[in-house]
Amino acid sequence: MQTKLCITGLLLALNLSARGSLAIIPDNSTIGLTEVQTVGGMGASISQVTLTLVLQGGFASDLQGYLRLGNLAGSTAFNLTSLIQGQTLSESTPTSYTIDVTTTFAGQNPNNTWTLFFADTSPGGVTTLDSWNLAIEAVPEPVTMALPIFGALVLTTGLVRRFISRRTDRVV
Asked: Over the stretch 99-145, which tens digit does the pLDDT of each residue have?
C-alpha cells in the first residue's frame, strides 16, 4: 500500500493505492472479495472522496458491490451495484471507473476502516479487481488549526505593541 499525505491550504489529502495486482472476485459466491484499508491522521471532516477502480472479465450484471466507511452494521456505504451492472466488462481490456462518492461521505470522519466489497452472485465468467484507489480530502479539526492561528495572532500583537511602544518613546 502506498500512502501519500499532503497539505493543501486547509485541506489534508490522502491517496490510498490499495491494490497494485489482480484480485479474483470469486464466481457464484456471496462471500465475495473484501479489500480493507485503515486511514488515520487526517482531518476530522471529509470534504471530497473519489474512488477509482479497474475491473476486468466476467459479467457486470453478476456483480454486487459497495464502498463502506466504518466496519459496523449500519455504517455509511456507497452502493456500487447499479453503476457496475450497467456496464460491459471485457476479458481483454480492463474497464476503469472513477466515481465521486463525496455526497455519501461528506462531513464524516475519514479516520476509520474503509472497505471495498464485490460479490459475483451468478455462475459463469470470472471478474478480477485489477486495482483500486481512494483519494480523500478532509478539513483539519478546528483545534488543530486554532493553535497555529492563535500563536500567529499573539506574535503579531506583541510585535505591534513593541513597534508602537518604541514610537511613543521617541516622541516623548
From this structure: 999 999 999 999 999 999 999 999 988 999 999 999 999 987 665 55
Cell of 21: 495486482
**pTM for this prediction:** 0.73
CA-to-CA distance for 84 and 92, rounded, in angstroms?
Answer: 18
Rounded Cα–Cα distance for residues 144 and 133 (Å): 27
Q: Are residues 97 and 170 in the same domain?
A: no
107 and 28 in one domain? yes
Largest distance between two CA atoms of the chain: 94
- What sign for the dihedral angle of Cα 20, 67, 60, 84? negative
131 & 155 share domain: no
User: Is the same domain home to 32 and 16?
Assistant: yes
CB 45 within 8 A of CB 11: no
State the residue range of the domain holding 105: 2-140
Specify the 3-state DSSP secondary structure of 134.
strand
Closest CA to 138 of 66, 43, 56, 73: 43
The Cα–Cα gap between 44 and 136 comes to 12
